[in-house]
Design a protein that fits this description.
This protein is α+β, with helices and mostly antiparallel strands and about 325 residues long. It has 2 domains: about 180 residues, no CATH class; about 100 residues, Sandwich (Immunoglobulin-like), CATH 2.60.40. Helices cover about 15% and strands about 35% of the residues. The protein is built from 5 helices and 17 strands. The strands form 4 sheets. It has a 5-stranded mixed beta sheet, with no helix packed on it. A 5-stranded antiparallel beta sheet has the order 10-11-12-15-14. Strands 2-8-7-4 form a 4-stranded mixed beta sheet, with no helix packed on it. A hairpin with a 3-residue loop joins strand 11 and strand 12. The protein is globular.
């Protein structure tokens, strides 16, 4: 099914709730793991065990920058580093892809040092090799110190200001219209194709959120994921501020915007739109969507995301 050539974001905002699926959802890969690790100042030297698997990418995200050597090299110590096909450290991220040299049952040490010098200054992990399980995304945060807790009211006030600013920015981004798409070369004769993923939404009902609908959109240089969520319990309102789209090989798409009109609650469902850059080489299958609040206290991971293939524009 081919839709008229219009903005992915604008199209998703006005699409009716009952639009028919445009492609049959393929069988999704097994669920990928999300781990959130909180480091406490009074537990320095503690080691956390994680699971890695040959050929599967594991990505660490840190809430502070990693320290550097005088030469500029990031302070990351990995046991048997030559047994990994990829070791890609960044300022606050680390990607590991184990090779087939590692066997099930192997244990390897990983230590990273943080730049700001606050406690704890390092984080140490034990990587256990398995064949059938891998922690694909590991979110590492440090517990707030006592003095930070005392300024909670100030942080909450600034969070409210950022929420208002974010709502304004999202409203402005959503009003770019066809002119902006033409200027950015995102609007071509190929138009926009959509894909409903009811099977993925149906099996994602065991977490703190219920997925009411999951749909993807694709144009020549853009993709967009639309997910309608409702909270299962009343932990408080939830608003997606950060997002990532990761492929099965560990590649990440550049996120352009995260749009959400109102916070998700247990009383009502809300729609979240995540738009990213993409080109004709995009693999349509096996993507994982990650969403989190600003604080990172509640994160969501949804695997099995797929996009419809683009036609030839004829």
């Amino acid at each position: 099914m081919r839709l008229p050539s219009v903005s992915l974001l604008a199209l998703a905002l006005v699409t009716a709730m009952g639009t028919t699926a445009t492609a049959t959802a393929q069988q999704s890969p097994p669920e990928t793991g999300l781990r959130r690790i909180e480091l406490r100042a009074d537990a320095a030297g503690a080691k956390t065990e994680l699971h890695i698997s040959p050929g599967i990418s594991t990505v660490f995200t840190f809430d502070v920058k990693l320290a550097r050597e005088p030469t500029g090299r990031l302070k990351v110590e990995l046991e048997r580093e030559d047994a990994f096909t990829r070791v890609d450290p960044g300022e606050s991220v680390l990607r590991l892809v184990p090779s087939r040299e590692l066997k099930a049952g192997d244990h390897l040490g990983l230590t990273v040092r943080f730049e700001d010098g606050a406690a704890p200054p390092t984080a140490t992990f034990v990587l256990r090799v398995t064949e059938d399980r891998a922690d694909r995304l590991v979110e590492v945060v440090r517990a707030p110190r006592m003095e930070e807790s005392a300024s909670r009211e100030v942080r909450e006030a600034w969070a409210a200001v950022r929420q208002c600013e974010g709502a304004l920015a999202r409203a402005q981004a959503a009003s770019g219209g066809l002119t902006a798409l033409l200027i950015s070369n995102s609007l071509t004769e190929n138009g926009v194709v959509t894909r409903d993923l009811p099977e993925v939404a149906a099996r994602w009902q065991g977490s703190a959120f219920i997925a009411r609908r999951l749909r993807t959109y694709r144009a020549d240089r853009r993709v967009l994921v639309e997910v309608v969520l409702r909270a299962r319990d009343s932990e408080g309102p939830w608003t997606a501020r950060n997002a990532s789209l990761a492929g099965s090989g560990g590649e990440f798409l550049k996120i352009l915007s995260v749009w959400q009109e109102s916070p998700v609650t247990s009383d009502r469902s809300e729609r979240i739109l995540v738009e990213a850059e993409a080109d004709e080489s995009l693999s349509p299958e096996s993507w994982t969507l990650w969403l989190s609040e600003d604080s990172g206290s509640r994160a969501l991971v949804l695997s099995g995301i797929a996009f419809a293939p683009l036609g030839d524009g004829k």
